[in-house]
Amino acid sequence: RTLAPRPLPRPQWEKAPSCYTCRQPFGPTLHRHHCRRCGHSFCHAHSNYVHKLPHLGYDGDVPERVCKKCKSVLDARDIEERVTWRLARCRDFLEGNLTPYFET
Prior knowledge:
This protein has about 100 residues and is of the alpha+beta class. The chain contains 1 helix and 4 strands; from the N terminus they run ββββα. About 25% of the residues lie in helices and about 10% in strands.
């Protein structure tokens, strides 16, 4: 039995004829790329962001291609998690319940 949560399902990749952002049609010189978080089709210029997506079952050490909108959402989530963690550490310190990182 494991306590690790199951990964969320990955999105279905759409096979759009044009970029979701700029609407340029895909062809021999404009290649289709997929955002690993939302599944939409983008040209390189609109999907050149990366973020680690272990919650979707991807390797946690390898950043995956994401679109600008998803990158913004993921960055905001990461900041929120860090702030929440730091506030909890401050609360624990003030209450005298701070667990040390290392026993010395």
